[in-house]
């Protein structure tokens, strides 16, 4: 899709009324991928909306903090939420499926993008999803999930466990 | 399109602090917060430096906002850290906050199965009226509720002692025969203590929900007190007798409050009492609100 709106003679002729609904924007990821998105979908991102309003967009909006893979996911989300016929129930279902398929590293990327692009609903849901991976889980489980190596000594860890013994009661078993 | 090699997923390392804080704000259990602090040194720093335990505690119990400083009694006074550098001191305060608020929140919200039941061994009911209604007025709050207040009341009926079950549930007690309650005051005496509090070794008893079932004789009959000698004047309104005779004793089991409201009330009650205990010091026992439900049957209220 061409970023510029010109007729075959090279003149800018897009009627303004029509422009609002149908015209697409181009979002450019940090790694140079370009994605086309309708203005109504892009407007669900407060950051992009502001850029459109400030008219500093010029048809192509560069997003230097979002890589292509993440941006594709974000656009899928925005398109669904901008869909005319989609009920709240549809969207909820979509969100559930959309997020449940993501690994933790993807969730983190999407969280970062959701925050940067100021898409509140997405950001909120992703953050919650990340934390759900920690609730009532063992320390070892959290380390494995987030690929963290402990730099505590065994003695230090034991000391804290002893002091807060109650926090280790009734924790889910690591067996998945 | 994954151009990153083995992506960093330790989000506390790779996301901005405010994003991390937002993520961690979804943790709603004090145990989760404490365990998060053991994941690695950087997680430990994050949890403590940002006061996650305190945030969580204040969110659940906003009444605690008034606490400006905490001291761990066994660790000496605040003065002992005065010689340290500002940073070290600040860190020490943060660590102490973490310890205290995590423990406090755990004490306030600990799971049901481990909850002690602060029931009494026996319960006894007395009915009566104040010696001087003018003195008492309608405000019972200034009465010393922990003491019988015998000097201010005339008790015209004392029930037998009913044994209480050491369980957290509604317990109905039926008076052996109908009793006329003149003046409308009912006193519940909780006799004998069972539950010793782990924290301080003192005994606590309490009652959370009371419903008295009876039948009003008003508006057919009314009692006035003739002060100052405390004599009673019985008033009869013949035109209201029919309605008084028709009103029957309510026998249906009280509907339990909505669970959420109940939990909230329980938490607030718990906190209020805990704070009262804090104010008064460990030697003044406070009531730790729990669900001991009583139902008393058979009284006639006038």
TrEMBL record, chain A:
Keywords: Ubl conjugation pathway
Listed pathway(s): Protein modification; protein ubiquitination
Listed SMART domains: Skp1 (SM00512)
Superkingdom, natural source: Eukaryota
SKP1 component POZ domain residues: 25-82
Record carries keyword Cytoplasm: no
Pfam families: Skp1, Skp1_POZ
SKP1 component dimerisation domain span: 121-167
Function, in words: Involved in ubiquitination and subsequent proteasomal degradation of target proteins. Together with CUL1, RBX1 and a F-box protein, it forms a SCF E3 ubiquitin ligase complex. The functional specificity of this complex depends on the type of F-box protein. In the SCF complex, it serves as an adapter that links the F-box protein to CUL1.
The family this protein is said to belong to: Belongs to the SKP1 family.
Protein known as: SKP1-like protein
Protein source organism: Sesamum angolense
UniProtKB/TrEMBL annotation, chain B:
Domain F-box stretches: 18-58
InterPro entries documented for this protein: At4g00755-like, F-box-like_dom_sf, F-box_dom
Tree of life domain: Eukaryota
Gene3D superfamilies linked to this entry: 1.20.1280.50
Name of the protein in question: F-box protein
Species: Sesamum angolense
């Amino acid at each position: 899709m061409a970023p510029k709106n010109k007729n075959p003679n090279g003149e800018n002729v897009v009627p303004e009324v029509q422009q609002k609904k149908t015209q697409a924007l181009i979002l450019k990821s940090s790694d140079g991928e370009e994605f086309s998105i309708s203005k109504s979908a892009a407007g669900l991102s407060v950051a992009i909306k502001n850029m459109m309003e400030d008219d500093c967009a010029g048809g192509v909006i560069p997003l230097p903090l979002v890589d292509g893979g993440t941006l594709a996911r974000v656009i899928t989300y925005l398109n669904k939420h901008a869909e005319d016929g989609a009920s709240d129930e549809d969207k909820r279902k979509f969100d559930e499926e959309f997020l449940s398929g993501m690994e933790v590293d993807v969730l983190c990327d999407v969280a970062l993008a959701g925050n940067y692009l100021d898409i509140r609903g997405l950001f909120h849901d992703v953050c919650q999803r990340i934390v759900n991976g920690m609730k009532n889980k063992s320390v070892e489980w959290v380390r494995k999930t987030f690929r963290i190596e402990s730099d505590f000594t065994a003695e230090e860890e034991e000391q804290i466990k002893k002091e807060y013994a109650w926090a280790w009661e009734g924790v889910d078993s690591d067996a998945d | 399109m994954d151009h990153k090699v083995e992506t960093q997923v330790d989000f506390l390392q790779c996301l901005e602090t405010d994003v991390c804080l937002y993520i961690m704000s979804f943790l709603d259990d004090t145990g989760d917060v404490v365990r998060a602090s053991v994941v690695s040194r950087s997680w430990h720093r994050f949890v403590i430096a940002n006061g996650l335990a305190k945030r969580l505690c204040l969110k659940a119990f906003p009444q605690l906002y008034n606490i400006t400083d905490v001291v761990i009694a066994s660790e000496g006074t605040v003065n002992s850290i005065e010689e340290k550098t500002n940073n070290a001191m600040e860190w020490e305060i943060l660590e102490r906050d973490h310890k205290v608020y995590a423990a406090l929140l755990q004490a306030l919200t600990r799971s049901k199965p481990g909850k002690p039941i602060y029931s009494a061994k026996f319960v006894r009911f007395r009915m009566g009226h104040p010696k001087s209604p003018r003195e008492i007025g309608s405000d019972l709050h200034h009465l010393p509720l922990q003491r019988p207040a015998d000097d201010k009341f005339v008790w015209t009926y004392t029930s037998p002692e009913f044994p209480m079950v050491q369980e957290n549930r509604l317990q109905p007690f039926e008076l052996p025969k109908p009793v006329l309650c003149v003046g409308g005051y009912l006193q519940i005496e909780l006799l004998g203590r069972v539950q010793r509090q782990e924290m301080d070794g003192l005994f606590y008893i309490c009652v959370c929900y009371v419903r008295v079932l009876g039948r009003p004789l008003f508006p057919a009959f009314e009692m006035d007190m003739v002060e100052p000698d405390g004599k009673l004047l019985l008033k009869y309104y013949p035109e209201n007798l029919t309605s008084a005779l028709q009103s029957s004793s309510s026998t249906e089991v009280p509907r339990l409050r909505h669970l959420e409201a109940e939990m909230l009330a329980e938490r607030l009650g718990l906190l209020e009492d805990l704070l009262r205990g804090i104010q008064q010091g460990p030697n003044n026992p406070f009531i730790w609100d729990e669900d001991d439900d009583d139902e008393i049957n058979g009284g006639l209220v006038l």
